[in-house]
Input
Amino acid sequence: MTEYRTRPLAPRRFDPAEMRARAASFLDEVRERRSVREFSSEPVPRDVLVRCIEAAAQAPSGANKQPWTFALVTDPALKHRIRVAAEKEETEFYTRRATPEWLADLAPLQTGPEKDFLDVAPALIAVFSRRWEEATGHKHYYVSESVGIACGFLIAALHHAGLVTLTHTPSPMEFLATLLGRPKSEHAYLLLPVGYPAEGCRVPDLTRRPLAETLIEFSPGE
Output
């Protein structure tokens, strides 16, 4: 067994006042994030997208296997092929697969099988989970959990950079692996349209559950 080398952890400790300020600032920033379906076609800087993907790849993962692949798509023809394939699956979902309860829950969002944002958004990021190493067959661990954490990093990084996104998950998504030439070891996990919001873009005025319904604390003496 070969152990990982270690290094000293770089000091990064703030006084309580700064900690509170930083936590509050981050909360304010993520409170403003919303899923967007109305994108501008204006191009976004490639290096910004790459840096955000690099930030996502800093996420922790089971046994440090880093079981993810990020496919950045800006080619209009390929984006359109993705849209056509996604709309085929979405039509099946809305007409056959979705339960009445599911469709009722979606109705206030006014979504449907048409996904024009896949053409309009200047960039798509397809995230794949790598279940094993193609070259060696070596299995990865906690794949879904690890990739989910990386996607959270990615969404937060893109928002922090001033871009908007939509967590798009047409089901099934096998068409992404086919169109993007991914190996059998990889499974499509998430498709993120990325860009600037369209002029006059509007989003649902949603609220989150109050903290009292989300947080459970176990304190000393209780």
User: Anything to note?
Assistant: The chain has one domain: 39-199.
